[in-house]
Amino acid sequence: xxxxxxxxxxxxxxxxxxxxxxxxxxxxxxxxxxxxxxxxxxxxxxxxxxxxxxxxxxxxxxxxxxxxxxxxxxxxxxxxxxxxxxxxxxxxxxxxxxxxxxxxxxxxxxxxxxxxxxxxxxx
Amino acid sequence: xxxxxxxxxxxxxxxxxxxxxxxxxxxxxxxxxxxxxxxxxxxxxxxxxxxxxxxxxxxxxxxxxxxxxxxxxxxxxxxxxxxxxxxxxxxxxxxxxxxxxxxxxxxxxxxxxxxxxxxxxxxxxxxxxxxxxxx
Lengths: 123, 135
Known about the structure:
heterodimer, A: 123 residues, 5-stranded mixed β-sheet, 5 strands, 50% helix, B: 135 residues, alpha+beta, 4 helices, globular
């Protein structure tokens, strides 16, 4: 099932609704890389609240999405990793190295706004 | 006591990986595993099923209840007829991977479960047997 991508201001929100096949994840990656350019997004939020498993493939793809969108000028924040999913990831030895995470959608927005402000202050 | 029969899942495509881990979670829930343990089991199934799809193209997973010495648990047997693993010791090494995974696959999966056994006959395939006991 494809992941719906919403837009709020200059932030794209990929709201994952159910377990994703490898194909769905790859499609999300392509879709986000294109949409970031099309809507000139500055940030991307991937909401994984609905995912009950994040295995090595999903983790690797999410990392790859984050790096891809960053190269396109938008920072990605992953939100909503469930406690038991986080525990399983740690046991498995998986990391989201270099990818911002936040507790939920609200915290994800706050983080992106803060980063954007920091960026403007520096400029 | 509820009797659960073996659940067999044919593993060939990425959609089968989802089916296997969903069935595994259901069986674990029915056996009274905590939500956290259900997630560990589902994640282990996902990793092993993906190994089949990536390296062997086709295989089968059997999910069964197991009871031993007053303990109740779940046993997962994954069999494929792929090329097999020539050096099991190397494959079980942290950081080793021949292809696309993060190199966490097998040793990581072993950490998710209580018992983990891997048998491989080069040219004939791999059998992974893993168990988790209810705490």
